[in-house]
Specification:
Rossmann fold
Protein backbone atom coordinates (compact mmCIF):
# COMPACT_ATOMS: atom_id res chain seq x y z
CA UNK A 1 0.00 0.00 0.00
CA UNK A 2 1.22 3.49 -0.87
CA UNK A 3 1.95 5.62 2.20
CA UNK A 4 0.85 9.23 1.85
CA UNK A 5 1.46 12.45 3.75
CA UNK A 6 -0.98 15.29 3.13
CA UNK A 7 0.35 18.84 3.29
CA UNK A 8 -2.02 21.81 3.42
CA UNK A 9 -1.12 25.45 3.85
CA UNK A 10 -3.07 28.66 4.18
CA UNK A 11 -1.56 32.03 4.91
CA UNK A 12 -2.44 33.05 8.44
CA UNK A 13 -4.02 36.29 7.23
CA UNK A 14 -5.37 34.97 3.91
CA UNK A 15 -9.09 35.64 3.58
CA UNK A 16 -11.66 34.23 1.21
CA UNK A 17 -13.95 36.41 -0.90
CA UNK A 18 -16.44 36.39 1.99
CA UNK A 19 -13.85 37.85 4.38
CA UNK A 20 -13.52 34.65 6.43
CA UNK A 21 -10.10 33.21 7.16
CA UNK A 22 -9.37 30.31 4.83
CA UNK A 23 -9.81 26.83 6.20
CA UNK A 24 -7.22 24.14 5.36
CA UNK A 25 -10.05 21.59 5.41
CA UNK A 26 -11.01 22.94 1.98
CA UNK A 27 -7.76 21.36 0.76
CA UNK A 28 -7.66 18.33 3.05
CA UNK A 29 -11.12 16.89 2.41
CA UNK A 30 -10.68 16.47 -1.38
CA UNK A 31 -7.18 15.08 -0.85
CA UNK A 32 -8.55 12.51 1.62
CA UNK A 33 -11.22 11.46 -0.89
CA UNK A 34 -8.62 11.13 -3.63
CA UNK A 35 -6.43 8.92 -1.42
CA UNK A 36 -9.42 6.78 -0.55
CA UNK A 37 -10.28 6.35 -4.23
CA UNK A 38 -6.65 5.40 -4.99
CA UNK A 39 -6.59 3.00 -2.00
CA UNK A 40 -3.65 4.93 -0.53
CA UNK A 41 -2.95 4.99 3.19
CA UNK A 42 -2.75 8.48 4.70
CA UNK A 43 0.05 8.16 7.23
CA UNK A 44 0.04 11.77 8.43
CA UNK A 45 -1.41 15.21 7.77
CA UNK A 46 0.63 18.39 8.07
CA UNK A 47 -1.06 21.82 8.18
CA UNK A 48 0.60 25.22 8.28
CA UNK A 49 -1.01 28.63 8.67
CA UNK A 50 1.90 30.64 7.31
CA UNK A 51 3.25 32.24 4.17
CA UNK A 52 4.62 29.85 1.59
CA UNK A 53 7.35 32.39 0.84
CA UNK A 54 9.47 31.14 3.73
CA UNK A 55 10.73 27.74 4.85
CA UNK A 56 10.02 28.77 8.46
CA UNK A 57 6.83 26.75 8.61
CA UNK A 58 6.77 24.31 11.55
CA UNK A 59 4.70 21.59 9.90
CA UNK A 60 6.61 21.89 6.62
CA UNK A 61 9.89 21.34 8.48
CA UNK A 62 8.39 18.45 10.48
CA UNK A 63 7.22 16.87 7.22
CA UNK A 64 10.70 17.16 5.68
CA UNK A 65 12.13 15.56 8.83
CA UNK A 66 9.82 12.59 8.45
CA UNK A 67 10.67 12.35 4.74
CA UNK A 68 14.32 11.87 5.78
CA UNK A 69 13.13 8.95 7.91
CA UNK A 70 11.30 7.46 4.87
CA UNK A 71 7.84 7.57 6.46
CA UNK A 72 6.06 8.32 3.15
CA UNK A 73 6.04 7.32 -0.50
CA UNK A 74 4.26 10.46 -1.71
CA UNK A 75 3.41 13.90 -0.36
CA UNK A 76 0.08 15.03 -1.72
CA UNK A 77 -0.62 18.76 -1.91
CA UNK A 78 -3.60 20.73 -3.17
CA UNK A 79 -1.37 22.75 -5.54
CA UNK A 80 2.31 23.58 -5.90
CA UNK A 81 1.83 27.07 -4.44
CA UNK A 82 0.53 25.46 -1.25
CA UNK A 83 3.82 23.50 -1.01
CA UNK A 84 6.11 26.49 -1.60
CA UNK A 85 6.18 30.03 -2.91
CA UNK A 86 9.90 30.42 -2.34
CA UNK A 87 10.76 30.45 -6.03
CA UNK A 88 12.23 28.00 -8.46
CA UNK A 89 15.58 27.36 -6.77
CA UNK A 90 14.21 26.55 -3.31
CA UNK A 91 11.20 24.60 -4.59
CA UNK A 92 13.40 22.46 -6.81
CA UNK A 93 15.79 21.91 -3.89
CA UNK A 94 12.88 20.58 -1.81
CA UNK A 95 11.81 18.30 -4.64
CA UNK A 96 15.39 17.06 -5.04
CA UNK A 97 15.48 16.34 -1.30
CA UNK A 98 12.23 14.38 -1.58
CA UNK A 99 13.66 12.36 -4.50
CA UNK A 100 16.83 11.58 -2.52
CA UNK A 101 14.59 9.87 0.04
CA UNK A 102 12.45 8.23 -2.64
CA UNK A 103 9.42 10.37 -1.85
CA UNK A 104 7.29 11.79 -4.64
CA UNK A 105 5.36 15.05 -4.71
CA UNK A 106 1.91 15.04 -6.26
CA UNK A 107 -0.56 17.89 -6.73
CA UNK A 108 -4.28 17.25 -6.69
CA UNK A 109 -5.09 20.30 -8.84
CA UNK A 110 -2.15 20.06 -11.23
CA UNK A 111 -2.15 16.60 -12.78
CA UNK A 112 1.20 17.27 -14.49
CA UNK A 113 2.87 17.53 -11.07
CA UNK A 114 3.84 14.02 -10.11
CA UNK A 115 7.56 13.73 -9.44
CA UNK A 116 7.36 9.96 -9.35
CA UNK A 117 7.19 10.26 -13.17
CA UNK A 118 10.37 11.45 -14.90
CA UNK A 119 10.58 13.97 -17.71
CA UNK A 120 8.22 16.81 -18.38
CA UNK A 121 7.14 17.18 -14.74
CA UNK A 122 10.57 18.52 -13.72
CA UNK A 123 10.48 21.23 -16.39
CA UNK A 124 6.95 22.21 -15.47
CA UNK A 125 7.80 22.31 -11.75
CA UNK A 126 10.50 24.90 -12.49
CA UNK A 127 8.09 27.03 -14.50
CA UNK A 128 5.28 26.85 -11.98
CA UNK A 129 7.58 27.47 -9.02
CA UNK A 130 8.53 30.73 -10.76
CA UNK A 131 4.83 31.49 -11.36
CA UNK A 132 4.04 30.93 -7.66
CA UNK A 133 6.83 33.30 -6.63
CA UNK A 134 5.56 35.92 -9.10
CA UNK A 135 2.06 35.61 -7.65
CA UNK A 136 3.48 36.25 -4.18
CA UNK A 137 5.23 39.37 -5.53
CA UNK A 138 2.01 40.58 -7.19
CA UNK A 139 0.03 40.11 -3.96
CA UNK A 140 2.63 42.18 -2.12
CA UNK A 141 2.47 44.92 -4.78
CA UNK A 142 -1.34 45.04 -4.64
CA UNK A 143 -1.25 45.27 -0.85
CA UNK A 144 1.28 48.11 -0.93
CA UNK A 145 -0.74 49.95 -3.60
CA UNK A 146 -3.90 49.64 -1.50
CA UNK A 147 -2.14 50.96 1.59
CA UNK A 148 -0.66 53.88 -0.39
CA UNK A 149 -4.13 54.75 -1.70
CA UNK A 150 -5.56 54.77 1.83
CA UNK A 151 -2.65 56.84 3.11
CA UNK A 152 -3.18 59.37 0.28
CA UNK A 153 -6.81 59.69 1.38
CA UNK A 154 -5.60 60.57 4.88
CA UNK A 155 -6.47 57.27 6.53
CA UNK A 156 -4.17 56.66 9.50
CA UNK A 157 -2.57 53.24 9.13
CA UNK A 158 -1.18 50.96 11.81
CA UNK A 159 -2.04 50.57 15.44
CA UNK A 160 -3.21 53.64 17.31
CA UNK A 161 -0.52 54.99 19.64
CA UNK A 162 -1.52 55.66 23.25
CA UNK A 163 -1.70 59.31 24.29
CA UNK A 164 1.43 60.65 25.95
CA UNK A 165 -0.26 60.91 29.31
CA UNK A 166 -1.31 57.24 29.10
CA UNK A 167 2.30 56.06 29.00
CA UNK A 168 3.64 55.78 32.51
CA UNK A 169 7.31 56.54 33.00
CA UNK A 170 8.15 56.45 29.29
CA UNK A 171 9.35 59.56 27.47
CA UNK A 172 8.46 59.90 23.80
Amino acid sequence: MVKIALYARVSKDEMSSTGALQDPENQLQPMRKFCEAMNWEITKEFVDRASGGSANRPQFQAMLGEVRQRHFDIILVWALDRFSREGMTNTLAYIKQLKEYKTGLKSLQESWLDTSQEGVAELLVAIFAWVAKEEKRKISERTKAGLAKLKAKGVKLGRPWPKKEEIKGVQI
